[in-house]
Amino acid sequence: MRIPHLTLTALAAAAAVATMVPGTTAHASVDGSGSAGSVAHAVHFVLPKGAAATGTATPSSNLVYNGGPVENAGSTNYAIFWEPTLTASVNSVSPQYNSLITRFLSDIGGTPLYGVTSQYYQVSGGATQYIANSSSFGGSYLDTSIYPGPALTDAEIQAEVTKVMAIKGWTGGVGHEFFVFTAKGEISCAGVECSNAVFCAYHSSFASSGQEVLYANQPYTGTTPVGCTTPSSPNGDLDADSTINVVSHELAETVTDPSVGNSNYAWLDATGQEIGDKCNFTFGSTDGAGADLYANGHPYIVQQEWSNRANACSMS
Length: 316
Known about the structure:
Order of helices and strands: HEEEEHHEEEEHEEEEEHEEEEE
Number of domains: 1
Pfam family, one: Phi_1
Largest sheet: 7 strands, mixed
Helix content: 10-25%
Strand order of the largest sheet: 1-2-12-13-9-4-7
Number of helices: 5
Radius of gyration: 18 Å
Oligomer: single chain
Keywords: Secreted, Signal
Subcellular location: Secreted
Main location: secreted
Signal peptide: 1-28
Shape: globular
């Protein structure tokens, strides 16, 4: 299936004006140097609330299997916190930022929300293999080295992943995802689309040493557009709660559509939207603490995910 790509003009207009239908995103092509290119691996954006990719499908149109792999055996997730000490006065994070994010990655597996992904599957060797409601936290790494520049390229995000994988002895492959978290004030760009204007985060994949590496670029939500924040903060840390929401979006999308980098797509709708895009910043009912999900007794505010079974956004 051919995926519609937004032009830079359309992306900029969506981010600046935010008048289109909320809850969608788009694929864009980026070459190995981080410049916009036609021969490239693709990245898949999370756009701010209120910004959207153009498309013709209705919000109720279901996801369709396109033949690519899914993380059917479950996901193991790793957090890379890139927070330079030399520029800590500029590139800071909130007090609970790292600990709340790692807690979420430890908590999410086995929850009803993660279970929404279990209705999706891959076909391998003629067998239909459904996604298991299983996710674990593989570990974290704090990198205090200086950023190469004020705006990181996609190639530099990839290089950070491979560097830390080597340091920690982590392996790639479908079923392992690496989340790169940068600090406040640091911008990152996929080609000419940048986190201070266009996107909240993106996920993709690339090849390294003969293995596929799944990764997500997670800019600090206190630096990204205002549409990237959550409406409440059940943990008393708006930046951390907002980033966790975007992490949840990217995690569900990687589980159901991991091989974005080589365009080997799995579950998409007719306009190229993934499971999280169709419910972008659409939350469940919240309690007095502002939480719509409790996992291992911990409160979170995270968006719903698309359920083909319900033909709607769902928390379970």
